[in-house]
Specification:
about 270 residues; alpha+beta; Aminopeptidase; 2 domains; four-stranded antiparallel β-sheet; 7 helices; about 35% helix; binds coenzyme A
Length: about 270
């Protein structure tokens, strides 16, 4: 029998231990996940929690916890469960926690619920049983392991500049269109091209284009990723990969991504 109740300061040590064990397990399975964990800081954050945090008990022992941050943005209100926001010994525990948390989030107007999990089937399974679907997937690679794919003569990859803004907007609209087709994908209601304009105003963001005869055929963006729980120093994020429709399935996407990553390594 699983009993769910609001978190109490006395639960702090048990929840900290669960999150520490979970992070270590994730690191053992996937060394790209950093297991560095500031327990004092995390314990302080738990006690200062403004939104409700639930714990599940079985036989008086804590067997799970669930916390979702309620966030408002242009799309409305949604609940976000971070990598340390959930732990559960089994599916019954998660179901009992989500029954409480999910209905609370709904009452608070949060009709979309998002969870960050490791990109593994066994990590996804419990959430899929509750009706969650996959939205975004992220991959990670050690830069020194990237083998740049060569391009045929006439094609080249270069860093984009202000002169590329119009074409960057055009290709971003193509990306936006593709993402609207994705299963259950949600997107910001920005005008086509507006997103990339904002992105490129950030001095840390770099635009990369692949062109032939001065005609841009593909692009992507990169930026340094802030250090956060689970990640390492010196991580770069690559996203917004788009190849013009008529040039797809010829290896250009792979060449762009691998050449950009190889440049960043150097
Ligand atoms: C995704 C996209 C960038 C791929 O570009 P591309 O130039 O066609 O890709 P490549 O020809 O270099 O193929 C790279 C790999 O992806 C695979 N691939 C490409 N398109 C695919 C598709 N539609 N379905 C399944 N696999 C696909 C290729 O088989 C290849 O795999 P391999 O290395 O194992 O052979 C391109 O289809 C695109 O611009 N799509 C719309 C925008 C988008 O969805 N971007 C991703 C979100 S950031």
């Amino acid at each position: 029998m699983v009993h769910v109740r609001p978190f109490d300061a006395r639960d702090t040590d048990a929840v900290v231990a669960r999150v520490r064990a979970q992070l270590l397990d994730a690191h053992v399975r996937e060394p790209f996940i950093n297991d560095a964990f500031d327990e004092v800081d995390f314990a302080r954050a738990l006690r200062a929690q403004h939104a409700p945090l639930w714990v599940a008990l079985r036989g008086g022992r804590i067997v799970g916890h669930l916390y979702g941050a309620i966030l408002d943005d242009a799309r409305g209100t949604s609940a976000w469960v971070g990598p340390d926001g959930a732990s559960f010994d089994d599916l019954d525990v998660l179901a009992a926690l989500y029954a409480q948390a999910g209905s609370h989030w709904f009452q608070r107007g949060a009709h979309e619920h998002w969870v960050w999990i490791a990109n593994r089937d066994d990590a996804f399974f419990p959430w899929s049983e509750l009706g969650f679907a996959k939205e975004h997937r992220r991959g990670v690679v050690r830069l020194r392991d990237v083998e740049p794919v060569a391009l045929s003569t006439g094609y080249r990859v270069r860093t984009g500049g202000v002169g590329d803004l119009d074409v960057a907007r055009e290709l971003d609209a193509v990306l936006d269109e593709a993402q609207r087709e994705g299963p259950n994908f949600f997107f910001a209601e920005a005008a086509p091209g507006e997103g990339i304009t904002d992105t490129l105003e950030d001095p840390e963001v770099r635009l990369h284009v692949l062109e032939r005869d001065d005609h841009v055929l593909a692009q992507c963006v990169t930026y340094p990723l802030d250090l956060r729980r689970g990640s390492f120093d010196g991580v770069v994020h690559l996203s917004g990969v788009v190849v013009r429709d008529e040039f797809r399935r010829r290896g250009l996407g792979a060449a762009l991504v691998t050449q950009v990553l190889a440049t960043l390594r150097d």
